[in-house]
Amino acid sequence: MTEEHLLHERTTPKRFYRSRHHRIIAGLAGGLAEYFNMDPTIMRILFILVLMLPGPGLVAYLLGWLLIPLEPQSKPSQTQIAHT
Fold it and tell me: Taking the model in full, what pTM does it have?
């Protein structure tokens, strides 16, 4: 890594996004795994366990799906390039 990249990582606050890469349904478990630097499979197992417990687990998941932004794309897609 370059010094500029390391400086950018230190000065930029860490943000929580729904993952585009580690996504099965909404990307919440993948996003949490990326945020906490964990294996996405472990986070998915934790999500399933929480959803099986009585309480507002499903409602919290649905609210997260609606309120947490999707991870920004790092590069413009081919569709975006074609439209410019």
Answer: 0.66
